[in-house]
Prior knowledge:
The structure is a homotetramer.
Chain A: E1 9-11, H1 20-26, H2 36-53, E2 58-63, H3 66-77, E3 83-87, H4 91-102, E4 106-110, H5 120-129, E5 135-141, E6 143-144, E7 149-150, H6 153-162, E8 168-172, E9 191-195, E10 206-211, H7 213-221, H8 231-234, E11 235-236, E12 239-240, H9 249-265, H10 267-288, E13 295-296, E14 308-312, H11 319-330, E15 332-336, E16 345-349, H12 356-372, H13 381-391
Parallel strand pairs in A: 1-15, 3-4, 3-5, 5-8, 8-9
Antiparallel strand pairs in A: 2-10, 6-7, 9-10, 11-12, 13-14, 14-16, 15-16
Helix pairs in contact in A: 1-9, 2-9, 5-6, 10-12, 10-13, 11-12, 12-13
Amino acid sequence: MTVxxxxxxxxxxxxxxxxxxxxxxxxxxxxxxxxAEFRAIAEECYAGLRHVFKTxxxxxxxxxxxxxxxxxxxVNVFSPGDRxxxxxxxxxxxxxxxxxxxxxxxxxxxxxxxRAGVDPEAVEARLREDKAHTIKAVMQVHNETAxxxxxxxxxxxxxxxxxxxxxLYMVDVISSLGSIDFRMDEWQVDVVVGGSQKGLxxxxxxxxxxxxxxxxxxxxxxxxxxxxxxxxxxxxxxRQTAFNGTAPVHLFYGLQEAVRMLAEEGLDHxxxxxxxxxxxTRRAVxxxxxxxxxxxxxxxxxxxxxxxxxxxxxxxxxxxxxxSVALDRFNVSLGGGxxxxxxxxxxxxxxxxxxxxxxxxxxxxxxxxxxxxxxPHGKGGVAAAMEYLASExx
Amino acid sequence: MTVxxxxxxxxxxxxxxxxxxxxxxxxxxxxxxxxAEFRAIAEECYAGLRHVFKTxxxxxxxxxxxxxxxxxxxVNVFSPGDRxxxxxxxxxxxxxxxxxxxxxxxxxxxxxxxRAGVDPEAVEARLREDKAHTIKAVMQVHNETAxxxxxxxxxxxxxxxxxxxxxLYMVDVISSLGSIDFRMDEWQVDVVVGGSQKGLxxxxxxxxxxxxxxxxxxxxxxxxxxxxxxxxxxxxxxRQTAFNGTAPVHLFYGLQEAVRMLAEEGLDHxxxxxxxxxxxTRRAVxxxxxxxxxxxxxxxxxxxxxxxxxxxxxxxxxxxxxxSVALDRFNVSLGGGxxxxxxxxxxxxxxxxxxxxxxxxxxxxxxxxxxxxxxPHGKGGVAAAMEYLASExx
Amino acid sequence: MTVxxxxxxxxxxxxxxxxxxxxxxxxxxxxxxxxAEFRAIAEECYAGLRHVFKTxxxxxxxxxxxxxxxxxxxVNVFSPGDRxxxxxxxxxxxxxxxxxxxxxxxxxxxxxxxRAGVDPEAVEARLREDKAHTIKAVMQVHNETAxxxxxxxxxxxxxxxxxxxxxLYMVDVISSLGSIDFRMDEWQVDVVVGGSQKGLxxxxxxxxxxxxxxxxxxxxxxxxxxxxxxxxxxxxxxRQTAFNGTAPVHLFYGLQEAVRMLAEEGLDHxxxxxxxxxxxTRRAVxxxxxxxxxxxxxxxxxxxxxxxxxxxxxxxxxxxxxxSVALDRFNVSLGGGxxxxxxxxxxxxxxxxxxxxxxxxxxxxxxxxxxxxxxPHGKGGVAAAMEYLASExx
Amino acid sequence: MTVxxxxxxxxxxxxxxxxxxxxxxxxxxxxxxxxAEFRAIAEECYAGLRHVFKTxxxxxxxxxxxxxxxxxxxVNVFSPGDRxxxxxxxxxxxxxxxxxxxxxxxxxxxxxxxRAGVDPEAVEARLREDKAHTIKAVMQVHNETAxxxxxxxxxxxxxxxxxxxxxLYMVDVISSLGSIDFRMDEWQVDVVVGGSQKGLxxxxxxxxxxxxxxxxxxxxxxxxxxxxxxxxxxxxxxRQTAFNGTAPVHLFYGLQEAVRMLAEEGLDHxxxxxxxxxxxTRRAVxxxxxxxxxxxxxxxxxxxxxxxxxxxxxxxxxxxxxxSVALDRFNVSLGGGxxxxxxxxxxxxxxxxxxxxxxxxxxxxxxxxxxxxxxPHGKGGVAAAMEYLASExx
Lengths: 394, 394, 394, 394
């Protein structure tokens, strides 16, 4: 057995680095989840979440992961046979669509370029065609965790409006929330799906839906069966007032600390920090691209993600070999390729509680792993990242 | 603001006392939930759960609370319109039944005495009547968390067999698992529902279903829509091999420690300890019964619960006043009455990580709270509990 | 191996119960002990300590235990051959005296009644005799940890003044600080010795001396060799401004939380709570006294300690047998007898982070342990404690 | 207020990075330090320490920092006026000598080159001159924490033997223990001084002396006053059997985990890892040396330390400016220059729980800080470190 020493660099695209403050806040006895002390904690959490979602509408928390909140989003607003439009962006958009289909919806996939992200004009065109308004909702992933592409939600919103289409706008912000700007109210997003384990810097086990007034109304008419996820049981007005069964009090303890930390830093600073560390990562990968080396999967600079960089290896190169070296020799944990990208890419999570030496240590380990694994690449990626970070004011 | 000092005595009937070992095991960074290190942790957890459930069949874990596992149990084995028999035992049996109804089942409640528990003969009689075998399942709570009554599962199993009825036997062990003997395989229970936050001594946020071979087969034919809870996605053979979305790694960290602790003590010792501390509690309440004081809600000594004692106050006495004094003045947290028992009872959880001075400290605070709240009662309850515990060998 | 379950009731007279808040505050990475962040923490700690010592004079912290601070107190103010008066009160007063002797002082013990505490009149009488003022200091234990006797410091101060004697007044407050009122400035105590692990609710490893202006002046002339403990290196004006070597940053983390907790509760409330829980303990022991049972070692109600009750068994009874039962069967840890009291007494610490159910759980375990160990005693000690605590408002 | 996010890179040369395992082991209630459970923990700690010190002789632990153990080493073996020889190597050797002088010894400093370390021949020559054997001991720092120079203890031992001189050999291993090979018994070191907060990866607050049979005998005759540090009270045979006052149980909890971690990795692997990461650091600094940049303070490759690299800036360059940028902008904490080196050097600790991405992240931050602070330097230091680490097998 190899004994690995020192702290693991955890560059997975979720779960991600959990600050000690949050871990310590969760290291605490249980309390009565129906008592006043817990209610005060929960209130602070919901207020903090609204701040992060940039909404004054309903946020509903579940003991579940993001897949649970995906399901919650669907079963609350739809009836069997409802038609939804899913702009294709990669693994997670497809899977959310599949889930909808398994739950009895008619799912129409709008084909798209995985490496560029959703084309707002294509959405507008398709919606314009739907004169009968048979499409009940557009279901969209904000930031594709699999590809590192960030879709342009505000522009797609404008596309829907331009088509004068009444579809609900549903957005999965699982890997953008708390890392990349998202504005539920300003962008009139009706249903939002988020999770605890990425930009919120928490352990997995808690997930959220945001629900606009329009979504809550849709829920009154929706006929898909649901109990655990049922907004009608959980929400009064536009506030969650009940929890179905025992509330996950420890995750609330952590969330209370998480929303405090985000408020202390300020969301604008949080987003700027993510952008800076992401740009450093991209600069490193661009150097590695030399000498027939790996490249950034996302091809459109407008949609390269500030929370995840997916790195595509050239044909015949083994991404898993790079990941193994990084993990076993340098104690750096990277994300692997999902589904059809398996073996072809590795993913660098750079979201949440991260700073310059953390990302540089990780990039250094990756650059060394490329060398050790015999993957051709341009040298000097880390140097390029350093040059950028030294010049860029925090 | 009152500052309360010293450790809270947390006598809620779940969540309950979490041992430091478990909290510390969870106070740890995330890891790759698709990597080898996590798989080894998960394997140990599942093996430990099978030991606690006394089964070699499938145990499926969810990021959810017990209400989620309730729903999982139903959506996996039923089709819309299926008929189930729910022997009434109190708040939780009724609610599980309601949930089934909301999901589209036809639910028949078998009336019963909340204070005595299910009568196996009544179950047998009802099943004998059902010659057409329209009843697909008997849905049963093992230990009613609301009333402190432990149903006689082995005897009900025999009743089903005596009626030669093929119904699935489904049992909720949420407040008995790890505290009171339960034998999934020996008692041929087809679907079991358990949670993390009671006898497993964990935070809430994780729940389980056990599924027999017969249940897994039923799942192949079941037509209720489900994705998050879908055994077909999660189970290979009779082992959980996948997690739907991100696994709640921190709850697995805690669970690993929990199953180790239960194995170290030995289940027989765990159950004997619960019985001993429960009996001490009952002896105290029996003394309090004097002078027109409160009484044990459960009337049949065979079914008085070893994990929870529900204490019924006499008419005109306010259980909430007792709870308030206990909490505000003595830092002892008790459970309140649920639904129709609200205000009439308080509940003493004595499950999980508990020992003699913990229960005696709590009983002492309760006896004092009765006095402070002006509730008539016999004095000397704690003394009776002490006398019993001093005489009873661990 | 017996597996003991549930939380240990830790009724040792130091170290004692450490609140989770303090443990969690210490569960944190190191930081630069010469940097600004640590200096701010240390400043808050010193201010908090001055509040607890009720002084505006110098408090000096050491990485050491109380025995280290004992030594620090002596080596800083004395020269070889200096004469000191040590009113005898028990194990710790004798040992502090021994330490002084080993370091080269001439130590005069003023005989006294271990069960009653120091007689201020005897101190006055002895000092009046010392017309030449050869006695440089009176060295006094405030609260004898071995006997549970609290000496009357204010009265002894008045005795010294009445004798018009210039001796330094040195007081060990190790087992009273933060539990029993002590007023360094008002009582003109020149040198105070305290430790982290009792009323400050901290782990052991940190100790303190308070030093009055008079003591700091004495330090300039003192000729005992010292470096580690040397106030002259550590103090500027009347503030500690340096640490000899690496500061124990984690103990400062804990201390910061400890002084915050004491301020939140308010010292008066802290002392009242100690008095209440101590009185409950005494009432229990007084009942046990019946039937030839054990008694409170401290005989004078004025000096019975609010932080420790030493319980004296009758001849032929084995205190260690009681302690063993309490620990092995009930997971309650009690203090043993020290030196000549070994086997004759056990000690109940009731200091620090304690509340009613904690002390009652412990007393219940002790009363049961007396029964199990076959030690005659009056029954109903816990009942008497409960009756008192139910009647006494917090 | 700047909010700094992400984990601090703590490259101080002690205290240093504390592994989570050790912090969590310390996050635990107190226990009876005179009971069996603590004794077992302490036994394991002492055995582990003997393994790390490579000795079968006495190791004595104190609640103190390294300066306390320095004092303990002296007061236990000397009498007033004894003469000792202190080969000069920097700040810490001088200070240990000063301490001896303040305690009443006659200290002779053997002048030496701070950047090269002790010359064994000079020691031998001086000892040969001392035909009367008036020199009672050679007091030597193994690894100068201030300069990053590791003295050649085995060779100095041979020098003492070659001179046939009976002096005690006393070695401070504070910043080498657990990072750089040290062999108390093989090298016949009589008194060893170590601390918890460096290679043992612990919080500060605990320190150690090793004492050979010869040292223990010297202690019998030594006449310096001592109580807290007194081996005669603490040691039976060659094992510590007592603790003076309350043992610092939490530091023992941590130490238990520390010695387990060192044993798991294996001391040889630990030392090799330190050598590898130190060499990477040196390669970076050598590149920075270009363009009139900073250099490694230690000039002799044989004595460049594997636990600390002291980096000397050129005249007119401000080391503190570099440290400020590193801390404030990149959250990397570096050591500053001590005494006469203040402002001229910064120090990179690379000891304890460290791995490749940790040191590379730190080096990257330092290289960027040089740029930001306007300190001329050769670029590509990190790249050189990466090239080395990619080629060097763990």
